[in-house]
Each structure stands twice: as C-alpha cells, then as structure tokens.
Amino acid sequence: MKKLFWALLLLQLFFLNGTGQKVAYKNSWTIAPSHIPNNNSVDAPLQGNGDITMSIGYVPGRLRYYLSKNDFWRLKSQADQLSGPRVVGFLDIEADEIFNNTFKAEQNLFDGTTTCVLYKKQLTARSWVSATNNVIFIELTAGKNPVDITVRLTAPYNHLAILKTGQEKEVSWLTRSFVKDVDIPTEVAVGMKIFNQGSNSFVLQTNQKLLIAVAIESKFNAAHPLMAVIDKCEEIDESIMNQLRLSSKKWWSDYWAKSSIDVEDTVLMKAYFQGLYTMGACSRDKKFPPGLFGWATTDVPGWNGDYHLNYNFFAPFYGLYSANRIEQGITQDAPLIDFIPRGEWYAKRVTKTRGILYPVGIGPLGIETTRNFPQKKWQEEGNIEEGGLFWQQRSDAVYGLVNMAQCWRSTYYKAYGKKILPYVMGVVNFWEDYLKFENGRYVIYNDAIHEGSGKDKNPVLSLGLVRNAFELAIDLSKELHIDMSRQAKWKDILDKLSSFPTQERNGEKVFRYTEEGMDWNPGNGLGIQQIYPANAITLDSDPELLRVSQNAILEMNRWQDVNTSNSFFMAAIRVGYDPGIILKELHAYAMHTYPNGFQLDNPHGIENSCTVENALNEMLCMSVGNVIRLFMGYPKNQDASFSNIRTWGAFLVSAKQKNGIVSNVKIFSERGKDCTLINPWHGEKVTVFRNGKKSETISGDRITFRTSIDETVELKN
After folding, report:
1. C-alpha torsion sign, points 491, 495, 497, 499
2. Domains (ranges, CATH) in the chain?
3. Can you tell me whether residue 598 is helix, strand or coil?
4. pTM of the full structure
5. pLDDT tens, 536-546?
C-alpha cells in the first residue's frame, strides 16, 4: 500500500460554556509522510453513528474513506487473524494533478461533520454520517478550476473473503462476506449513488457541488443486505437527505444534553468532549460493541481487533456511566453474556469449578478469538489451557463486572439487573469454588497478575475485583429479591478475604503486586487497579490503606502509560491525591494526543478515549460507595460547574464552584433512594428544597436525606 500522506489535521468543537458564550476548541499539527492511519495507531478523522463507522485517509492522488460496520467480523473461534473485525471497503475519490500534494481536514465534533480541502485544485470534500440511518453523505465542491474526478468503491483482497461488485441503474455496489470455514457467516453490502451523474468518472466544474450517498447494511440487520442498500440509495434525494440531516443533528444535540461540564482549562474541555464524541460515534449496537480499535481499516488488526478482557476492552466504557451515556455503555455487556456457555466449559475443564472462566480474547456471539494458538512455547509455559489463551490469569471474567457494576449502581434499572444476573452468578459461583479458606482467610492461588507472570498468590487486582463481584451480588440479591440465602456466604467471603499485600520501596510502604510471586512491574499500573476500577479502596477506607495507596501512586508515577493511564488518574483521585498535580498531569496527557484524541504511541486503539472525561467527572462529583462528594477532587482555586453527572444511587447531580464556594446543588432522584452527601459547606446547616418547595433543614459533615422517585432536590446553605 502507498504511504498515506497527511499534512494538516484540524479538529474543531463548539459548545456553550456556563455564561452562554460560544467556545472553540481546536487542535492541529503536521503528520509525517511515513505515518499511516491503521488499526494500531488510528490518527485519522473519525465518523460514525454507533453502528457504521468511517475514517479518512489520503494517498497522494486519492482521498480514501475507510468504511466499517460494528457487526462485520470474520466469526470463527480461532486465533492468528482468523477471527476479528474486518473493514467493509473503501470509497476512493481520485482527482487529477494532486499527487504528492497536501490537504487540510477540519471536524466539528458537535455532529462529526468533516471537511477536507485538497490544496492544489482546492477541491473540498464534506462528509457526515447520519446518526439515525445507515447512510453516509459526501459533498464535493470544486475550487477555482475544474477537476477531473473518479469515484471508486473497492475493498482489499482477502483470499478468505468473497467480494462481488456491480451496478444497478444509478447505484454502484459491492458485497463482502465471510462464509467459508467460519462458525457464523457474515455479509455486508455497500451501495453508492452519485447524484445527477451517469458515470463514476466526470469533470467537476468551477464552484460546482456534487453529492454522493453511501448506504451500508449487513445480514444481521437485513435478510438481503444488497437489496436493502440498493433500495435505500434509489430512494434518497435531496429532500430525504435534508430530513436525515435534521434528525442527525437532533440526535447529537440530545446526546450532548445528557450531561456536561465547564472547567477553566480549554485543553481539558476539548479532550472531555472529544472522548464522548468518539464513543458516541462507535458504540450503539447492542450485540456488537466496538473492538479494540473501534474503526476497522484493515483485515489484519493488531490482537485480532477483538475484545481483550484483561482490561483493554473495558477501559473505553469506564466513564460513560457517570457521563449519563448509558446507551453507549451497555453495549459492552452482550459478548460477555453470550460467552457464558464457553466460560462454563472452561471452568469445568481447567479449574474443575462451577461458574465461568474466560480466556483473554473473545468476540461477539460466543466467538473465541484467541483459541488454539499454534505456538508451542506458550503451551509449554502454561499460558494455553484446554486450547484457550489464559496467560495463567483467572481474573478476565470477574473484570467484566467492573462496568456492569457501575451501570447497575448508577441506574438501578431492574431489567438491567436481571439481564446481567446470569453473568454475575457465573462469576461468583466460580470464585466461591476457586477461593481457598485457610488460617481464617480466603486466599487466591495460581492467578497471574500480569500476562504469564506465573502462579501468583493473592494478586492485588484480583483481590479488588473479587470484592467488587461479591458486593455487586449482594446488592442485586437485595434489589431483585433473589438468592437471599446466599448472602451470608458472600458476606463471609468479603469479611475474610485476604488483605492487599504491601512492601517497602524507597523508604515508603506501598502495595506489592502479589503476596507471593511478582512484587512490582516498572511498566504497568495493574498494582493500583484494586482502587480503580475495582472500587475496593475509597476515601472512607482505613487511613493507613489510603496512605499506602497515595505512596503507590507517587512511586508508580504512571500518568502516561501505554497500558493503564485510564485507571491511574482515577485511582489517584479516589484516594485523595493532590488535585493540583492530577490536573497538571491530566493536561499533559490531553496534549499528548493525535488530533482525533487518541494517545500518541499507544497501540491499543480506543481504550483511552474517555480517560479525561472520566477523571474530570470524578474530580467534580465522586460517588463511589454511595457517598456523593462535590468538587472534593478538584482544586478550590479554580472555578468549575457540571450538569447531570450520574452517580451511584441513580442520581443526576448538578453543581457549581466559584471562588472556592459551592452553589447551585441540584439532585434529581430516579429511583427514590436515600442520598448521602459530604456537606459541601463544611458542617453548616443545609436547607432542602423538594421540587421547588422548601422542606427540612439538616446539618453535619455528612448529611443523608430521603428522596422520592423522579424528585428534584436542591440544597442551599
């Protein structure tokens, strides 16, 4: 493939700040000619509607649109690139005399509209993806000179794929499928209509505009995807396009209205909304969440482009629940639930237990992407068991509960609790059997904290994840009135689970990665994930445990880590680390990105998309442990406000801090639960207003008050 040449990429975002004034967030730089937008380092403009996605690249002489769809995979339970997401195809716009030239791209993150300007001929290509229909629109406009243009619909050669192309009246089409030697056949179709042109090659006259419509559909959504895209393209005219444009803008407007923040640092503001845009654009399909890279641009993605379960798959979803983007967050659940039968099979054969045991890599619909690796070396070292790649870890399935727990605790939707219940019970059944009770405590044996780190005893991460699992099981049991008789056993495990191992480094007491086995790792932050995302340590924890946690944060200093920055910032906030240092490091982190917000030199795709968003929400409104803390992780000398951050207990919280004083505290209660809040006015009396009417007055450093379903509570000092 020719090298994709980028010259200037400009991202632009407009939102209203607290004063109603329009604020612009921009970022731009020059990309080296040797850099290509691929699945290991996606640095392109990204567009999508949560089902179909598109990224943009530039080969000299050709503007390329990479088309992808969340449900287009090669679905086979086999490793070594035989399973994983696949690119749907390419839409290439070829224009004369623009070889070895440059172009500028500008993207409005409000709805993802992206404009590319090719300099020599001043050809402009403006594209947007409908948020409510699987249609893409590209508008070409010539500059001061006519341009010879050819538009091609193509796909990469793959000997395992079946590719068909054709023409139906005004519609060019292609279909791509994987049906040979697979577990589940897949097929996708693309239709392209060029308005008012009888050919795919034409001359675009000076200042002339030309519209291209592209429809994409798969066999999972349509019995005959080719017929579906041809019919859709033939129906589309400018009137329908305008209707779709209006509905798309409304969808994005509603999406941004779900919650918002306002802080003084515009770099962080841009990064905050950038992350939410990314997940809004790639995560909405309830059966097919985005894989490691979100956008497929090749048939050979790194790590199969799959769902890697020892944190990578879960990380981009961490912050969606506090941001009140539940629709984007719950998509991660389906592949975990669909894999339950295979997980039970592994538990019976590998660990001789009940419950579920998951390997490191899975796909949708029960597919296992890391099965039967041919390398004997891994088998000899014990990383492959019964054909599955486990890396000697037992924590992959229990890790799957971190986001489920966050979603449940933030919504208390009973239907959601019932949906995840089989998975939760599978996890707790496994750990009931796998934990060993000895000398008055429950112990974890033979569980590697790092991939292949050995038969570790009591890894801190697993200890934290197991606590989270049993606490979630107890909460679900109480709310859904099921398995009540098992609560005593679960509470006993929580009471007697081994403590987090510690050690001394550089004269300070810090966590030891395991009680026996790996003691430390210089290039990864797994040693603090018991704090976050496992939620096992909070500001209400023992002061000595908090001191050890802060020492560990200082000793690790992993603010920009290719693996776990997405949990490192949150862990620091959770244990009361210096807010000024956190904010400074978060700013540096936000600057260390490609224009589309992806971290520089990070090979793991979308996993860091919401790191800034998640951290800022937590600094402004922490609620772990069902205790709401307003601005307790944020510097008092900086003004900030937020609206509708979703907290534990199913509350939507809004507040403002100005000159160090908290005001405008509003709490909307969805489920009518009791609300506990650290008094933001330091022990002063607090007056409660319910649905606008003055109610009771309460006092104390920690205040608790009743709420009713769909009640708005305002607090004033």
Report:
1. positive
2. 48-256 (2.70.98.50), 261-617 (1.50.10.10), 640-716 (2.60.40.1180)
3. coil
4. 0.94
5. 999 999 999 99
